[in-house]
Write a structure and sequence with these properties.
This protein has 110 residues and is an alpha/beta fold. The protein has helices spanning 2-26, 60-75, 96-101; strands at residues 47-52, 80-85, 107-108. It has one domain (2-108). Strands 2-1-3 form a three-stranded parallel beta sheet.
Length: 110
């Protein structure tokens, strides 16, 4: 029972860190016209990011990532979409940071 509680707390902390990182990375890129549209995107343009998670489809951990990307899509009114990829789909776990740095994927959990 303690393991389930601890796992739930860790999952929530990971999600919180990811959302804070996402919000911090999106700040400051608005146009001076006051439209609120990020620089380089049209008003109705959909931004699509690849997100390599640490989960495998069918497992509870992957469901948490699916819920997160669905909530972000809803909060952005459909303007930010994620292609959610399972662990190891693009790069190995230990290469996640480099993959984001090089633009291989836009988001990765580690």
């Amino acid at each position: 029972m303690k393991t389930k509680v601890l796992t739930g707390i860790i999952c929530r902390l990971v999600i919180l860190v990811m959302v804070i990182g996402l919000l911090a990375g999106c700040g400051g890129g608005t146009q001076p016209t006051g439209t609120g549209a990020p620089t380089g995107t049209g008003a109705g343009e959909v931004i699509k990011w690849r997100y390599q998670s640490m989960g495998v489809p069918g497992m509870k951990q992957f469901w948490v990532y699916e819920d997160l990307v669905n909530r972000i899509k809803e909060a952005s009114n459909g303007r930010l979409e994620f292609q959610l990829l399972p662990v190891g789909a693009v790069v190995g776990t230990m290469e996640s940071f480099d993959a984001v740095s090089k633009g291989v994927v836009e988001v990765a959990s580690s």
